[in-house]
Amino acid sequence: MRIWNALFFAALLLSSSAESEVPLRLDVKEHHLPNGLTLLMLEHHEAPVVSCSVFYRVGSVDEEVGSTGISHLLEHMMFKGTRLVGTKDFSREEPLLRKIDALHARIREKESGAVSGTDSSVTMMKQDLARVERDADALKIENELWKIYTQNGAVGLNASTGRDYTQYVCSLPSNRLELWMWLESDRMQNAVFREFYRERDVVLEERRLRIDDSPEGTFDEQLFATSFIAHPYRWPVIGWKSDIANISPGMLESFYRRSYAPNNAIIVIVGDIQTPQVIGLAERYFGPVPAGPQLPPVVTREPGQRGKREAILKLPASPKISLAFHKPGVGDEDDIALDVLDNILSSGRTSRLYRHLVEETQVAVSVSCDNNTMKYPSLFVFEAIPRQPRTCSDVEGALFKEIETLAKEPVSEWELQKSRNQVEANFVRGLESTSDLASLIGTYASIYSWEYINTYIPKVRAITAPDLIRVTKKYLREENCTKMEMEHAPSAGEGHP
Amino acid sequence: MSIRKTIKGEAAQVRGIAAHGILFFTLLAFTACTATGRKTHPSQLAFPLLSFSPPEVERITLDCGAPLYLLEDHTIPLFSLYGIARAGSAYDPPGKEGLASLTAAVMRTGGTKNMRADELDRQIEFMGASVSASANEDASILTLSCLSKDVRAAIPLALDILLHPAFDEKKIELRKAQVREAIRRWNDEPSPIVSREFRRLVYGTYPYAHPVIGEPGSMERISREDLLAFHSEHLHPSGMILGAAGDFDRGALVRTLNSILGSGKAAVPNPLPEVTRREERSVNYIARPTEQAHLVIGHLGIRRDNPDYIPLMVMNEVLGGGAFSSRIMERIRTAEGLAYHAASHFTSNVQTGFFSVVCQTKEESATKALSQILEELERIRKDPVTEEELSRAKDAYVNSFVFHFTSPDQSVGQMVDIEFYGLPRDYLRTYIARVSAVTRDDVLRVARIYLHPDKATILILGDREKFKEPLEKFGNVRMVDISAGEEMIR
Predict the structure, then answer these.
(1) Tens-of-pLDDT digits for all 497 residues of chain A?
(2) Domains of chain B: total
(3) Which structural domain range is residue B102 located in?
(4) ipTM here
(5) Distance CA B438, CA B394 (A)
(6) Do B277 and B328 meet the contact criterion of CB atoms below 8 Å apart?
(7) Rounded to 5, what percent of chain A is helix, strand, coil?
(8) Fewer CB within 10 Å, N side or C side of chain A?
């Protein structure tokens, strides 16, 4: 979702008009270190600030059944410090952390019945565990990484995990760039997963909040799970609940060693910087980090859908409908035509869906669509809320009618030009914020290539009305569609199954 | 929320109203030690001095009497105009809740006396521009964002919307239907339920209590005449504060604004009554079979112009406002793994805002988390914070000061907000000095004055059958009925 928003914005960012004074492109400087690290820099001198990100080309798409959610859990654990940060004395802390892991593993074995033993031995191990945890806690410095950053004036400090990549973001006063280099190169190689078990509980709480207790979240999760039967986009980024609980520190450690190597990372620095200085700092701090193995690409391809799929979700929430169509990944020429189609269908009050479904026939109270921008083939999704007393099937009929029109009649030149103008204006708007620019550059670099940003506007300009008819016919077909409806069901007092 | 979400590219720009202030001059540098080779801890790093002069935002008075803040900056070919009026939902008449919000929304969507709604949207959207109008508790806000090449075409459209809205009957009906639908759905997700109901509990009958969008049944009681009357009473340009930022020509802009807005006298905004509620401890329970209990603990807070605002923000940073650097997060999330989100917050309003701690945790740990939060509120009132906590919180504010000036739009917007909330015009100039002056005693003093765990309103949504302790432990329990909105239509 987030990726797409950034993209759309970017997309909207890029077209140009004759009078425009800024070039509608980003003058990104690219540099590579011998260990494979990619460095992307953009000078932006409006204020003495710098936005810094590390993008790892790894996300939930790179996971396996049984440990889904591991990339997101790793993202959480990356805030727990390293051998140098977050500890008073790592040489004393390390053996205790190993002991904690061993005790947890043994308790788990006993409790699962895999190993015979008495309840009293489990009780004793738990007492043991509590003692060792107390000793380990005494040696840690809680949230030290976070505290160092914020004390130095960091804003927007965060991280996020997606299906295709994981990003660590923050903005600092520009004189603190070296601090960022120090901390990020440290956690690229020295992360220590202290407090693992508590943090895994935190992630389970996050899942309850975002998905299990949220009809919206459950709906999105189920839509992807129903639309994909083979490709790993089918599981949620946060992971299935039972999988999260199954992840061990050992699994996390090996996932970290495999994924967080410099050759799988992209550093993006945007702000009040001088490129040669940034390169010098990056060489000093990231240069010594050893390269890791090459991550294998995802080989699974989603088989072609051979008929409409329909699913109904019964939750204590009001009706809602989605239609999801399989479509290509970023870089495919058709994906840009679908972006333009998305814009014409759903951007603003002059868009087709708003005018026809919300204003004229009033079948829906709101309607939108999203041409998700992702690395691998994904989904073009329509979403609408019926306006009482109209139903989901009324809305579905109206949506397919729009699609039918698009497949037959060319869109007007006015609509095409409007979407080009919006793409351009939004590109210019995106130039104001160093953090938005860093996110944009890193996103495209992770899923395709940052240069895509500079080719985007010319490509949008080249899209014609017949292109839109062609992609409508090719992708927005009924047999390529998964329909999901939310149907209101009382909560019945027993919670979710 | 969901209503606006679908209108892409519109109204993306609702500005967060003046949270913290800003500063000046130079930021601190630690002692240098030239780095040859890697230090073993980041505290050994030295940073070059950062010298920085914030951009000078000019203030003039327009012929209509409204102040205009200006910052011309040609770096990016973008222009934005921002106008704020004291016309929030606090001025909704009883029974007509949602009037301010409806007026702002339909002012934008309902066309003008000079142009039909559809034509207006076509012109604005074709430029890739955006004009939006919305209301919060205190204010109605109008914004325009466009490319600088379109300034001449876009400003008259935006001001026509402000001055001569037609309030087309069909657009009023459409918006009302959307609001009714939003109300019918407002119990679908737990988080919005508790924030809405907590506000009601804290404010009682005060007009900050009701949701900005309205109440069940209130749309039926609002007529087009009500919108016209609200507009003419509260949205006159003479009572507004305006800001313009980006790539424009100062002389031409001022001439244009004066010629369109005309002349007049600065209008004094209608005062709101004081919030005078007497508070006592209450425990309020919403039964819902969720996996997670939602907790809100809090009470009335401060007005934005309270002179203790800065020490209070420093106190809150230590308590629960500073994410992982704060006590509540450290205890509830890091040390216990009880919650993903746990934070405290003071709202900023013209009249008295409120203080709240919010957290979500599995049902089994609900009462434990609640006890721990109450303990943290007591603890910060009992003993001074440590020197380390104090300097961490102050440094965070001082060192991030430069982020208040990252775009011309932001520099201007915050000056507009400073005047809107009645803060001194040199607020930013004195900000760093005032943050730096906060002491441990100040933090203790404001914690004792402004935190009242003994009188806190506690709101819990969840399944009490699964709680480990009875809720009565925390006070008399009252059931909260939230069915009104749903029954309206279902």
Answers:
(1) 232 333 333 333 333 333 445 678 999 999 999 999 999 999 999 999 999 999 999 999 999 999 999 999 999 999 999 999 999 999 999 999 999 999 999 998 888 876 666 677 889 999 999 999 999 999 999 999 999 999 999 999 999 999 999 999 999 999 999 999 999 999 999 999 999 999 999 999 999 999 999 999 999 999 999 999 999 999 999 999 999 999 999 999 999 999 999 999 999 999 999 999 999 999 999 999 999 998 999 999 999 999 999 999 999 899 999 999 999 999 999 999 999 999 999 999 999 999 999 999 999 999 999 999 999 999 999 999 999 899 999 999 999 999 999 999 999 999 999 999 999 999 999 999 999 999 999 999 999 999 999 999 999 999 999 999 999 999 999 999 999 999 998 765 444 43
(2) 2
(3) 2-16+58-261
(4) 0.91
(5) 8
(6) no
(7) 50, 15, 30
(8) C
| Strand A265-271, strand B354-362: pairing | unpaired
Tokens for A158? Answer: 């965060």
How far apart CA B134 and CA B109 sit, in angstroms, is 11
The sign of the torsion formed by the CA atoms of A484, A486, A491, A492 equals negative
B252/B324 same-domain check: no
Residue A342 resides in a domain = yes
Task: Mark whether B453 and B363 lie in a shared domain.
Answer: yes
What DSSP designation does B237 have?
Answer: G
CATH of the domain at A459: 3.30.830.10
Q: Is B149 on the interface with A (CB under 8 A)?
A: yes
Choose among B78, B324, B334: nearest Cβ to A432: B78
Alpha-carbon gap: B341 to the closest alpha carbon of chain A (Å): 8
pTM score of the predicted model: 0.92
Cβ neighbourhood burial of B383 (10 Å; 0-12, 13-18, 19+): exposed
Residues of chain B neighbouring A418 (CB-CB closer than 8 A): 125-126, 128
Report pLDDT digits (tens) over B110-157: 999 999 999 999 999 999 999 999 999 999 999 999 999 999 999 999
Same domain membership, residue A323 and residue A177:
no
Strand partners for A266: A38, A55
Residue with tokens 């996103």: A443
Structural domains in chain A (count): 2
Q: Which of B44, B45, B394, B404 lies closest to A177 in space, CA to CA? A: B45
Cβ contact, residue pair B47, A179, below 8 Å: yes
Residues 6 or more apart whose CB falls under 8 angstroms from that of B336 comprise: A198, B365, B368, B369, B372
Tell me the residues of chain A between 410 and 439 that have a Cβ less than 8 Å away from chain B: 414, 417-418, 421-426, 428-429, 431-434
Among A13, A143, A352, pick the best mutation site for testing chain B contact (most B Cβ within 10 A).
Answer: A143
Residue A229 token pair: 């039967």
Whether residue B339 sits in one domain with residue B254: no
The reply to whether A263 and A396 lie within a common domain is no
Residue B333: CATH number of its domain:
3.30.830.10
